[in-house]
Write a structure and sequence with these properties.
It is an enzyme of class 2 (transferase). It contains 5 helices and 7 strands; from the N terminus they run αβααβββαβαββ. The protein is α+β, with helices and mostly antiparallel strands. The radius of gyration is 15 Å and the shape is globular.
């Protein structure tokens, strides 16, 4: 673990975090969530802080024994340091005891995310053709699933 991880924390997002989270999303995603989407999803988002500054977030929605990883992002200054894995492991650990599967979609070109998901045990379960808009057209999504053991 790096020095930063020893002074990091993960907590539920509060209204005051929305601007920081939105800024991280805009920097990392060409199809960014809106401020309203973050505001509407407040109850299902956790943030990762380092020295009290928000550097990442994860959004997981749980419904009827299923969960969906809706969004996860780390500020570019902190990429490659293990914070994405830390945040995702924490989110998996906080799933309710009746959740059996965690699903996600990821761009086929997002090799680092796919590598992380596979490392944590996610399996490819399908594809969605043209799921993501890009500046050059459409991009496919890989559907992945993780069986959750309570």
């Amino acid at each position: 673990m790096t020095y930063f991880k020893s002074i990091s924390s993960i907590r539920p997002m509060i209204i005051a975090d929305i601007e920081s989270v939105f800024g991280i999303e805009k920097v990392n995603s060409s199809s960014a969530w809106s401020l309203k989407q973050f505001s509407d999803s407040l109850q299902c988002i956790n943030v990762l802080t380092v020295n009290d500054a928000v550097i990442g977030f994860v959004a997981v929605l749980e419904v009827a024994g299923q969960a969906e990883l809706q969004n996860i992002s780390i500020h570019p200054d902190f990429h490659g340091l293990g914070y994405g894995e830390l945040l995702l492991r924490d989110a998996i650990g906080k799933l309710s005891s009746d959740t059996e599967q965690l699903y996600l979609e990821v761009r086929v070109s997002n090799f680092s995310a796919i590598r992380l998901y596979r490392k944590l045990g996610f399996k490819d379960v399908g594809n969605r053709k043209g799921y993501y808009a890009t500046e050059f057209g459409r991009e496919d999504a890989v559907l992945m699933s993780l069986g959750v053991i309570s």
